[in-house]
């Protein structure tokens, strides 16, 4: 039973790490503030959720009882990440930060 829980936790940690890496690359590579919000906000929620679920599976198998502390972390991150991304987008909109445009649409 521990080998299965270890494998599940390992897969979830790797998936969470890959998701966070992709979000970091999106933050670094996308051209403007509005596009940069999508990479980290979506993938950070997925990455942290995967890592927290890995922790749930590992410690539930190790202790023999369900570990629910990490579920609160998942709920908190899932609630706060979109709100913070929305606030950053509104601040960028009100400050009239430049947006990236295709060369075809520019006069």
Describe what this molecule looks like in 3D.
The protein has 107 residues and is an all-alpha fold. The protein has one domain. Helix content is 79%, strand content 0%.
- By DSSP, the count of extended strands is 0
Provide the low-confidence segments as ranges.
none
Task: Briefly note the structural class of the backbone.
Answer: mainly alpha
Beta percentage is under 5%
Radius of gyration equals 18 Å
Number of helices: 3
Query: What is the general shape?
Result: elongated
Main beta sheet strand tally, sense and closure: none
Span of the ends, CA to CA: 64 Å
Look at the structure and give the mean pLDDT: 87
Number of domains: 1
Could you state the order of secondary-structure elements as H and E?
HHH
The portion of residues assigned to helices is over 70%
Write the layout of secondary structure elements.
Elements: H1 2-29, H2 33-63, H3 69-94
Q: How do you describe this structure in short?
A:
The protein is an all-alpha fold. It has helices spanning 2-29, 33-63, 69-94.
Quickly list its features.
3 helices, 107 residues, elongated, mainly alpha, 79% helix
């Amino acid at each position: 039973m521990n080998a299965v829980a270890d494998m599940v936790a390992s897969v979830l940690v790797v998936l969470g790490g890959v998701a966070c890496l992709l979000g970091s690359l999106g933050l670094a590579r996308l051209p403007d503030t509005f596009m940069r919000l999508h990479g980290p906000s979506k993938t950070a929620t997925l990455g942290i959720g995967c890592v927290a679920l890995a922790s749930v599976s590992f410690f539930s198998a190790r202790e023999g009882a369900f570990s629910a502390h990490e579920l609160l972390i998942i709920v908190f991150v899932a609630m706060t990440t979109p709100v913070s991304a929305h606030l950053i987008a509104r601040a960028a909109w009100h400050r009239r930060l430049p947006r990236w445009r295709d060369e075809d649409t520019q006069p």
